[in-house]
Every structure is written in C-alpha cells, then in structure tokens.
Design brief:
The complex is a heterotrimer of chains A (340), B (427) and C (546).
Chain A lengths: L8 H4 L8 E7 L4 E6 L5 E6 L4 E5 L5 E4 L6 E7 L4 E6 L3 E6 L9 E4 L5 E6 L5 E6 L4 E5 L5 E5 L6 E6 L5 E6 L3 E6 L5 E6 L4 E4 L4 E4 L3 E4 L5 E12 L4 E10 L4 E6 L7 E8 L5 E7 L1 E7 L8 E5 L7 E2 L5 E5 L4 E6 L4
Chain B lengths: L1 H5 L5 H5 L20 H10 L2 E7 L23 E3 L6 E3 L3 H4 L5 E7 L6 H10 L12 H8 L10 E5 L5 E3 L12 E5 L15 H22 L2 H18 L11 H7 L3 H14 L4 E6 L8 H25 L6 E6 L3 E2 L11 E2 L3 E7 L6 E3 L1 E2 L6 E3 L4 H11 L7 E4 L2 E4 L14
Parallel strand pairs in B: 1-8, 1-9, 4-13, 5-7, 5-8
Antiparallel strand pairs in B: 2-3, 4-12, 6-7, 9-12, 10-11, 14-15, 16-17
Chain C lengths: L2 H4 L3 H13 L10 H12 L3 H4 L6 H13 L5 H9 L5 H11 L1 H16 L9 H13 L4 H8 L14 H4 L5 H13 L19 H11 L2 E5 L6 E5 L5 E3 L10 E3 L20 E3 L8 E2 L4 H8 L5 H16 L19 H13 L4 H9 L26 E2 L2 H11 L2 H9 L5 H19 L13 H9 L1 H6 L7 H6 L4 H13 L5 H11 L6 H13 L2 H4 E2 L1
Antiparallel strand pairs in C: 1-2, 3-4, 5-6, 7-8
Helix pairs in contact in C: 2-7, 3-16, 5-7, 8-9, 10-14, 12-13, 15-16, 15-17, 18-20, 19-20, 24-25
The chains are: A mainly beta (340), B alpha/beta (427), C mainly alpha (546).
C-alpha cells in the first residue's frame, strides 16, 4: 500500500508509538476513576472509588491523599499560576485544593450542582472555572473565589463534559445524548450545536439511555475537537458496544472523521488526547483495556497497545512524551512514547 | 398430620381429572360457589388488594433500601434521612424517603438464586423451582383467595413496560386458567376488550340479550357448574367492557398525571391506582430495567429517577384516598446486585443479601428488619427467604399463612411450610 | 348425504366395508357388549327405567355422536337428511359410517395427540409428521397395545420410525417426567407423589412402583446425533434406580430393577463388563447397550394381560364417550377410589383384551348402548346429572369448538365448494385447521398440562369482540349469513339457522322469537342474522356436547 504524502508526516516520524511502554506503576487500594498530570510535570493526581484523590510524586512515588469529598470524583483541572487543583464530585461539590501541600485541605468547598459534577475546566487565562453536571447546567465561576459568573442554558439532559477552546473565547459542552454546544464565553450565547449523537442510544429493550461524551479534547491549534465514547450498542445492560471518537472540524462544526479501533473491541473511550505531532490517542475500557493511536486523517487506528485492565481516563503531558492512565484495578500507570 | 403438613408438593393431581382424550373436565366451581351480585357487594367493602412493583432485572439494594456509603462497596451515592428517625435510604430516593413512615424494609433477604428466571420464580411464587411442580404466582393465589371474581376485573393484572399484552395461563399453575394473569402491554387494555368498530350500544345490548335468552332456555334442563362457568365468563367480559374507561389514564386531572410523572412508569402506576380503586385484586407494575452489569450508577440514576417520585406519589395517593390500609404494597426484584463494583462500574447478580420494601395493609410502617454487614455482602441479622416473604404477605392480608390448597383432597401449602411470617413488619 | 362417505377414497371404501363387517361379532342369541353394558347398569340401579332420562332425540344423538366420533358438528344437509330418514337402524348405520370415515381417524388422532403430548411444543419431532403417524395408525386400525408398545420402546435412532419416539423426545427424556406420564396415561395411576415416598393418601401407590418404571428410563438420555443433527435416545448399560423415602428417618437407600406395577421384576442377563455394549460410549457416539431396558419397556407396559393397562384403555374410552370415567379422576385407579361401577370396569377391561384393544370396535359398542344414547336433559326431579341415568354434558375440545364454529358459520362449506368434487379429507382438514388455529390457541391448555375446561375472560372476549368469528359472520357466497339472508321466509330462515348451528329444528317459541327479531325496527336483515347467529354460536348449547 502506497501511502499518500502527508504534510504532517515529518512530525510523526520521529515518534515510535508502537513502542509505547509502561514506565511506572503506582498502586492504590481502590479502583480509580479519573486522573490528570499536573502542569509542572511533577505529580499525577488520580481520583478513587473511596471518594479520595491521590497525589503521586512521579519522581519519588510518594503518595499524598486528598480527603474531603463525600462522593466519587471524575474530573480534575488545574490553575497553574495559583497552583490550584479543582475537583468535581458526584455529590455536586467543587473543591479547590493546593497542588503542593503535605496535608492538603480544600481551600474552597463549593456546592455547585445538584447531583453529579461531571466535568470542570479552567479557562486558558486562569480567570474562570467552568463546570457541568447532571442538573443539566453549565456554569462559569470566577477564580480564585469561585463566585458564579454566568450559566449557559440549553442542555436538556446530563451534561457529561466540557472544555474551553484553546483561545478561551468559547466554551464547549457535551451531553449524554451527544449534543455538543458551542457557547460564547463572554456573553453566554449559544453559537451552534454540533452533532455527536452517534455516541448515544436509547436502548428500547433495556429502557435506558446509554452513551454520552465520555472524553473530550481540542487539538492545540483548535482545528479539531475530539469527542469519545461508545457507539453501536447492541446490549445496554452489559455495555456491549464499540469505542468511537467523533472528530469535528471545529471551523465548520461538521464531523470530519469517525475514529475506530482497527481490531474489534468492546467498550468506551474514556480518555482522548492530541499529541503535538498530530497523533490522536484514545484509552478505552470495557472487555479489558486498550490504548489506540490514530494517525491524522485516518479513521482506523494504526497502533494499539493492550492494557492490563480497563482504562478509566487518559492524560498526556504537554511535551507529548509521557502519559498517565488511571485503571479500574487501582493502578496508575505512566507510559512513555519513545522517539526513533 | 405430618404427611399433610409436609405434603407431596405436586400439583399434578389437579391436572389429572380430565379427559382421556381430553374431552371431559371438572375443574370449575360448583354451582354454589359462583358469584352472585349481592355477595359481591358485601365483599367489596372489605376487599383487600395487592400492588406489586416489580423492578425488573434486579434493583441494587445498595442504591435503594440498604445503602453503604463510604465503604468499598458503597458506590458514589450518599444515604439520606427519611421521615422515620434512624432509618436512612439511598439519596436516589428523596421522595420515597418522605414516605418512609408507610414503609417496612426487609433488609435480610437471602434467596440464594442468582439467575433471572429462577429468582423471579421465587419472588412470584415464594418457592424455589422444582422439576415436576409449578406453583402459582402470588397474583393468581390472591385472585383466588381474595375473591377476585366478584370485582368484575381480572384477578391478576400485570402492567408491563412494553411489548404485547395477553393472558398467561402458566402463571396460575394448578389453580387453573381463570386465575391467569392478564398482561397490559404498556398499559394498553386487554385484547378484544373494545367492541368491534361500527357496533352500536343497541346492537351490543340486543345480541347479549339474545344470548341470555338462549342460555336460559338451555339451562332449564341442562344447567351444570360448567355451563354456568361458561356463561359467567361472558358476564365477566361484559363487566370488563363496561369499564373500559379505567384504562384511559388521560381522564385523570393533569395535576395528578404530572404528580405521577408523565412517563410510562408514571402512567402505569396511575393506571394501577385506578384499577385498585375500582376493586382490582392484584396489580403488578413492572419497571424496566435494573440489570446493570454495566454503569450501575448511571442506570440507577435514570431508573430510580422515574421510580422515586412516581412510587412516592402512588403511596401518598393511595393513602389520601383511604386505599392504602386495604392494599398491600410490595416492591421486589428477582434479586439484588453485587456489593462488589465490577470494572465497568456495574454490579452483577446478588441474592445472598438484599432488600425489599413493603407498605400498606397489615404492614407496620416505619420499620426496618434484618441487617447486612458493613459492606453488604452477607446478612448478619434476621435472614429470610422468599418463603418468609410469602408468609408475611398472607398474614398482612389477614389470612392464615399455613392454609392449604386442596387438589383432589391433597393438601398443598399456600406458603412454604419451612418458612414463617416476618412478624416484625406486621402491624 | 354425508360428504364424508361420498368422498371416501377407494381405500377408505374398502376399509369401511371391512370394518362394517367386523362389528357384529357375536353369534345370534349371545348378547352384544353394548347390551351387556346396559344390563349391568340396569342391574345395579333399581327402577332404572323409571329414573333414567329417555333416549336422546335424533337431533341430539346426531350432534353428539358426530362430535364424539369426528370432532365437529354435522353439516346442515347431513342434519336435514338424518332427521328426515325414517328407516329403522339409522343410528347404528350412522355410527358405523362415522367410524369408517377418515374424519374419525383424524379426530381420534387429535385426541390421542392431545392426551399423549399435552400441547408440548414440537421441538424434536415435527407436528405434521406426528399427526400423520397417529392418523395412519387410526386409519389402519392399529390396536392400542401395539401402538403403545411402539411409542414406549422407540429410541428414535431409525429415521423410518423416529416419529414414534416423540413421547420421549418432547419430554427431553427426563426420567421423572416420563415415569410420571407413562403411569398416568398408560396405566391410569398417578404415581407422582410416590416419587419421594409411598403415596401419603393412596396406600396402593408405592415408591418402589414409581422407581420400577423409572429404572427403565434412568439409563436413557437425549442424544444429539452430530451427523443427522437430530435428537434421539441413547442408553447406557449401567445406572440403577435408587431412592430414599423422605419420611424415612434412617435414610435407607433402596434400589429396584426395572419393573412395571403388577408385573414381576424384569429378567436381565448377567453380562461381563466388556460385553455390556454393542457400541461403547464415547464422545459424539451414541452408546448401544447389549441389553436394552428401554426396548422392553413398551412390551412390559402394554402387555395384553397387564390389568392396569386394560383398565386404563377401557376407562379412558368410556370417559371419551360418556363424559366421565368409571374411575374418576382417570389416573387415580386404586382401591380407595373405586370405579362408579366396579364390575362393569372389570368386564370392559376383559373385553378390551377380547377385542384386541381395537379402539374403533370399543367405541362402536359404547356408542350403541342405551346408556350413551340417553338424553342429556335432566328428568324431572333430578337435581344434578346422575351417573348412567342421563347423558353428561361434555365441553368441546378446543379443536372441536373451532371446527364446529367454522362448520356452523358455513365457512367449511365454502372450503368444500372451493376444493370441488374431489375434496379429500386431508386437504379439507388442513384448510380448516389453518383457518381455526388462532381460536384453538385461545382455548387450548398450557403446554405440558392436560386439556381442561376452565372458561376464561380472554376466551369470552375473543368470541365477543375478536376478528375471527366476526369475519366468519360476514356474508360470503355460500356461508351461513349469505344463505340466511337469501331466505325470504322467516320460518325457513329459522330452520336453516338452527339446523346449521345447533343441529336441530327450532321450537315454535324460538321460531317466533327469531321472527320478532328480524322485524326489529332499524335492524337490517344481515345485522339481525349476525346478531342471532352470534348468540346461538356463543351459547352454552353450542359450547357443549350434550
């Protein structure tokens, strides 16, 4: 097969994604839910099914628990200037924590949503925090005091995810039914809806909704938006469906590609990330765990790495070398992508 | 006599008194046992009802009646206080929590059966499955012992979330098809309830009148229990047809419909109340689906989100209308769900330690009996099984739970003789 | 005349002649079985002649015997012809003609099917093949003992007679289920309770009797042949029937060899370990033992000299015709539940042997009795139908009801006309059963349970508002409503309606009532006829064989 020349090819070549390997295992006693590398690159923070957050020092392996939430935390975000970590819990709380502290206590405890907080995101300028949750609300809070700024009204079901555009002018939120909303941050105005409803299904036999935008990321140049989740569900109660990333051309708002694993897999894309080189990474969990790599412009993954068990999230360090995956078995595994 | 108490648990004898080649029969009531309008009126006043809410697939006890927050098995939900001090339930049931004073929780259920069909059988019959014996559903039993024939409605109505309707003879087992269940698929009236299009009231009346005259002539010299049973079945059909409006839930005031919830389960529970208010003996409403091997918590938010307000409204509405004291309410599943959360955020089948809720007739509201350990994996206090639950149903309805059915003079205990009532929840 | 006889194939005509010749068995001077039955009954009831109901009218008899022997009501023209016929011996001729008809074989095959299979789904043996098998057995007048032997010893490995293994196969060869049903259906003994202990209430029924039959079956299992993809029975050479009584506090385990109640223990050859098998058990191989217990089960149960087998035959055929078994329930033949007439059942059981278990012959003799031919109308002073004194009402089997509704509404006549002069019974039957199947489904018993009569709401709603009966009552050339509405004279219309539906002429009152109804203001003639026909079709008089 002769591959057409690609403009991004030079940037891709030095990476040897096929040799991505685990370099550090950080073991915790409770299954993990979400995780983020802190912007300084010193720590990884993960959340666990015992309501705690865990801070791991990547160099020393030292562990510091963050206790205080009254339910599970799925979402973490950082404000680098003030070295603050924000966490949103399934009890509706948003806590602001010091990134570096030996005995961390929340600086602020905000009762933000009714029901689950599904996602929080810090604006690129560090002045606001956005949150969304099961109460259908998308909220903007001022930083550092977490006072309400405005609400973005329009979702009609659980809001699963949100992120700012890299320039910070727009906020993008996505819900259970795969409706992606593009909001103007300064006015709260809804600009447009994008359609990721392929990530949702109402299972008539089971009589329940399944799906939602479980993971979301912008490419650094803001040209692409990736929304990950599960599609083609044939059996909701056992979660029988296929992982899928819907890739949007952000400018037009149209679907550009549907990224699927090359080899059949049953499960959900729980984490998605853009590598600076252009590769798109997805981590999935269902019948086991898997990490996929898609070349830009290709719908089918070209490299896949079998993971020890279900991946629950994915975070890629900005330099693109290191990534962290929290797992259903309580492990946080750090991977490195070598260059050729 | 011990042999009677033990009984050979076989219903086959009931089935034996029929024809060689199928022709003859004796399975109908004697003439004296048939309904008369006067008797019907008298019974109506003391009529007891049973309402079963069946959470299909196996609802999680941890997300409902026996929360274990802050433990490895607890999941993300918190426990909340209820209208009864000292009793907490899962935060997914805020409306139900305010009705706790009507409810009795049985938290020590161990039914030891993790398969859907067999678990369902236990919760519908109070027995474990046996190879050559089928027991009747509670609905069929109630249809018989509570005298459903006097109500002009089918004795055992099952409002199912979707799918087709129909009559299910197998549910009645040895009690016979007159105690069969009638499934109202998505709350739709039974098949053939509505008279053919184009037929007028007058025409319907005329031909019923003719049929009566023909039957009366025949009965002059050939009246038997069987001919009476046959003509009675048309009488039932007529009564049922005359009450077709019962199925028209939209006749209820908008305010009521909204309180119940404008979704299928809301409509179905409102239909259940209409039926019970009109004298129906046993109504089962199924809510689907709780078989949450995957995303247990998401699904419980969604399903209990429908269940909670609707169920709380139903209890309150029954209470306000004075029906609750005559109506035994039971909320069951085929089993509970594993305390251990699997890697897909699911919970699997768990019958060793789970819970049900009871309310209404004969039930002591505001109680909780039975305990499980800290992680909910085992019963530590007052362990009961399906047999105990059935004894409790009978006693709550003012019936002896050690009575027998007699089939060809052979006693078949109405409830498992190895179990006994859960007296702590009885009023 | 009779459609059935007119359309007999040549083979049928020959068989009919042979059968007609075979009934008068006894030399003159000896009493027939029918006479002896009536004599024994008369001898047991003082002043029987005073108490008993009078003989059934011709119309009552015609409907009754046609339903009992062919499973449907007679056609309107058959009824008219029979009621007009004034010649002596017409009832006996009718009985013999019906017994010789293919409709008899078809109906009796249906009755056997319902009894043996109890509406189980056809998972292993297709329905059509099974029904054809039974039909041929009846058409060829195979004796019941021979048929029973075949049913109870066929393992299904030979494609030629695999159909006969249906009794086992559809019960998944589950030894308890098969044991129970063999005892119930072939011996009139419900040993179900003796599975776990001697029967608590019936001293005659012992646990070792149950396990004696079980021992024939415990080595048998269902085998799926990898080549033909069909299921058949496989039998091992080892495995004993062991049992404990749940009442036995010492928990003694007992064992029994194969043995049919009332028979000695089966003699089994002593075989060395390596001579036990013709084909040894292996993966995907059907074992064949050198000595097969199963092969002898049929001949042990269905032995002509096996008294329970004889009594069961006599009692069940009696019940089929008379509406109630001499032993009742049919499968509770034991000392504490004596027959309504013990000597009569003993005599009939012996007679079954003499007649070589000939179903047709036995039914013929029952049909000829005065007992069978009594009216079903209660004589004055009788409160409830007394045994032997008045004919019992029999609810129609679902198939009988459906076929009768189809006949009464004239729909069967339309099918006959469409099939033309060469209408073959099998073709007509196939059409009628296809058209009436939805109705049968509403009325039939649940799979795995015997047919029972329990009128239910869904059945009543089906007849009241269902599409099927309603469509049969829409006028179509040649059907009842079409014929009725073409009759100008109200009296002729009443005759046609009553003869077609209830197999009798209307009384004067009924004639007047119908005439009045036709005059009802605002009611057109079609609607009036539909209303009236519906009322008759759904009446108790129609629902029962009386």
């Amino acid at each position: 097969m002769t591959a057409p020349a690609r403009t991004t090819a030079p940037a891709l070549d030095p990476l040897d994604v096929a040799k991505t390997k685990s370099v550090k295992d950080l073991k915790y006693s409770s299954p993990l839910i979400g995780g983020r590398l802190d912007p300084s690159g010193k720590y990884v923070f993960v959340s666990a099914q015992d309501n705690t957050l865990q801070r791991w020092d990547l160099a020393t392996g030292k562990n510091v628990p963050y206790s205080g939430h009254s339910s599970w935390v799925r979402t973490l975000a950082f404000e680098p200037r003030s070295k603050t970590l924000f966490s949103g819990s399934y009890a509706g709380e948003i806590f602001a924590w010091p990134v570096e502290a030996d005995r961390p206590q929340p600086r602020i405890k905000l009762d933000a949503h009714r029901g689950w907080v599904r996602a929080v995101a810090v604006s690129p300028d560090g002045k606001t925090l956005a949150s969304c949750g099961n109460d259908h609300r998308v909220c903007l809070w001022s930083l550092p005091d977490l006072k309400p700024v405005r609400e973005f009204t329009g979702h009609l079901c659980h809001v699963y995810n949100l992120t700012f555009t890299p320039d910070g002018t727009h906020l993008v939120s996505a819900d259970l039914k795969g409706i992606v909303k593009d909001w103007e941050v300064s006015t709260g105005k809804l600009v447009r809806d994008l359609d990721a409803s392929i990530l949702y299904k109402y299972d008539k036999g089971f009589m329940a909704d399944i799906g939602g935008v479980r993971s979301m990321a912008f490419s650094a140049d803001a040209s692409l938006l990736a929304c990950g989740g599960i599609t083609d569900v044939t059996n909701a109660f056992a979660g029988v469906g296929k992982p899928l990333i819907v890739l949007f051309d952000w400018k037009t708002g149209k679907q550009k590609l549907l990224l699927r694993p090359k080899n059949a897999f049953q499960g959900t894309i729980w984490g998605v990330a853009f590598h600076p080189s252009g590769w798109i990474l997805g981590a999935g969990g269902g019948a086991g765990g898997m990490l996929w790599f898609w070349k830009p412009g290709e719908a089918q993954s070209s490299v896949e790495l079998k993971l020890p068990t279900n991946a629950r999230d994915l975070d890629l360090a900005p330099e693109g070398k290191r990534l962290a995956i929290p797992f259903a078995d309580g492990m946080t595994r750090i991977y490195e992508i070598p260059t050729k | 006599m011990e042999t009677c108490r033990y009984a050979c648990l076989s219903g086959e004898h009931s089935l034996s008194r029929r024809g060689f080649l199928g022709g003859m029969a004796a399975g109908v009531a004697s003439l004296a046992g048939l309904a008369t309008p006067a008797l019907g009126k008298q019974l109506e006043k003391d009529q007891k009802h049973v309402l079963m809410i069946y959470l299909s697939g196996g609802v999680s006890q941890l997300e409902t009646w026996d929360p274990k927050p802050g433990t490895p098995t607890g999941g993300p939900f918190r426990a909340i206080s209820t209208s009864v001090p000292g009793i907490q339930i899962c935060e997914l049931l805020p409306h139900t929590a305010r009705q706790m004073h009507h409810l009795a929780l049985v938290r020590g259920l161990n039914t030891a059966e993790n398969e859907h069909g067999r678990g369902s059988y236990i919760m519908h019959t109070g027995r474990r499955q046996e190879p050559a014996m089928k027991y009747p559903h509670l609905g069929s039993v109630m249809s018989k012992v509570l005298g459903a024939e006097h109500t002009g409605l089918p004795g055992y109505v099952h409002i199912s979330p979707g799918g087709g309707g129909g009559f299910n003879k197998q549910d009645a087992a040895f009690l016979g098809p007159r105690y069969a269940s009638v499934t109202l698929g998505n709350g739709k009236p039974p098949e053939n309830l509505l008279r053919p299009q184009g037929m007028t009231d007058q025409a319907e009346h005329d031909r019923n009148d003719l049929q009566d005259r023909v039957n009366q002539r025949f009965a002059r010299s050939r009246r038997t229990a069987e001919t009476e049973a046959y003509t009675h079945s048309f009488e039932q059909a007529k009564q049922m047809m005359a009450r077709k409006h019962l199925f028209e839930v939209e006749r209820e005031p908008t305010r009521i419909q909204e309180r119940y919830g404008k979704h299928d389960f809301g409509r179905h529970c409102l239909l259940a109340r209409r039926l019970i208010e009109s004298g129906a003996t046993f109504v089962k409403v199924s809510h689907s689906n709780y078989d949450t091997h995957y995303e247990n918590f998401e699904y419980h938010i969604e399903q209990l989100g429908e269940f909670d307000q609707t169920f709380a409204t139903l209890l309150d509405d029954l209470h306000q209308r004075g029906l609750l004291k005559h109506t035994l309410v039971t909320v069951v599943s085929e089993f509970g769900r594993t305390p251990t959360i699997n890697r897909n955020y699911g919970r699997d089948h768990w019958s060793k330690a789970w819970s049900i809720a009871l309310a209404g007739a004969g039930i002591k509201g505001g109680t909780a009996v039975g305990k499980t350990n800290a992680t909910g994996t085992a019963v530590t206090d007052r362990e009961v099984n399906g047999g105990h639950v059935f004894h409790t149903y009978f006693r709550a309805l003012g019936l002896s739970s050690t009575r027998n059915f007699y089939i060809d003079e052979r006693p078949i205990p109405m409830a498992d003789p190895k179990a006994a009532p859960i007296t702590e929840v009885l009023a | 005349m009779f459609v059935s006889t007119r359309t007999l194939s040549r083979r049928w005509s020959l068989l009919a002649l042979a059968l007609l010749g075979s009934f008068p068995l006894l030399a003159s001077g000896q009493n027939t079985l029918s006479q002896r039955i009536d004599q024994m009954i008369a001898a047991s009831i003082p002043e029987l002649a005073k108490k008993a109901a009078p003989p059934a009218s011709d119309a009552e008899f015609l409907r009754r015997v046609t339903l009992d022997l062919t499973g449907t009501i007679p056609t309107t023209s058959e009824t008219r012809a029979f009621l007009t016929d004034r010649s002596p011996g017409k009832r006996q001729r009718l009985i013999e003609r019906l017994l010789a008809s293919p409709e008899f074989a078809r109906h009796q095959a249906t009755l056997l099917d319902v009894m043996l299979m109890e509406r189980r789904p056809d998972k292993h043996v297709p329905r059509a093949a099974w029904q054809e098998y039974l039909y041929q057995a009846l058409a060829q007048n195979r004796p019941w003992d021979a048929l029973a032997r075949e049913l109870l010893s066929t393992d299904g490995s030979d494609p030629k007679n695999r159909v006969a293994a249906k009794f086992f196969l559809e019960r998944e060869a589950e030894p308890n289920l098969v044991t129970r049903d063999i005892a119930r259906l072939f011996l009139g003994m419900n040993l179900q309770c003796a599975q776990c202990h001697d029967h608590p209430i019936v001293p005659d029924y012992k646990q070792d009797q149950y396990y004696g039959i079980y021992a024939f079956l415990t080595r048998v299992s269902l085998f799926s042949d990898p080549k033909s993809k069909t299921t058949m029975l496989a039998e091992k050479a080892e495995g004993e029937a062991t049992f404990q009584s749940v009442f036995d506090k010492t928990k003694t385990t007992r064992t029994t060899g194969p043995r049919v109640p009332g028979r000695p223990l089966l003699k089994e050859p002593k075989l060395t370990k390596d001579a036990e098998y013709k084909v040894k058990p292996a993966k995907n191989v059907r074992p064949v033992p050198a000595f097969s217990r199963l092969a002898l089960l049929g001949s042990e149960i269905a032995r002509p000299d096996n008294v329970p087998f004889q009594r069961n035959f006599a009692n069940r055929l009696w019940a089929q015709m008379m509406g109630r078994g001499l032993v009742h329930p049919l499968d509770m033949d034991h000392t504490d539940n004596p027959p309504a007439h013990p000597a009569l059942l003993t005599m009939l059981a012996q007679e079954a042997v003499t007649q070589k278990f000939d179903i047709r012959h036995f039914l013929h003799d029952l049909a000829l009795t005065q007992t069978y031919q009594r009216s079903s109308e209660l004589p004055s002073g009788m409160q409830e139908p007394a045994p032997f004194l008045v004919a019992q009402l029999k609810p129609l089997l679902p198939e009988e009801l459906a076929a009768s509704l189809y006949q009464a509404t004239g729909m069967t006549d339309i099918e006959r006309t469409a099939l033309g002069k060469k209408v073959a019974e099998a073709t007509l039957h196939a059409r009628v059963s296809a058209a009436t199947a939805p109705l049968v489904n509403v009325f039939r018993s649940e799979a795995g349970t015997p047919e029972d009569f329990q009128p239910t709401l869904d059945q009543a709603l089906q007849l009241t508002n269902g599409n099927l009966l309603r469509s049969w009552l829409n006028p179509r050339t040649g059907n009842l409503i079409d014929r009725l509405t073409k009759l100008k004279d109200a009296g002729a219309l009443a005759d046609e309606m009553y003869l077609s539906i209830l197999t009798r002429y209307p009384t004067a009152d009924e004639r007047q009532d119908l005439a009045n109804y036709l005059q009802k203001p605002g009611k057109d003639r079609v609607a009036a006829c539909q209303d009236y026909a519906w009322a008759l079709l759904t009446s108790a008089e129609f629902r029962f064989n009386h």
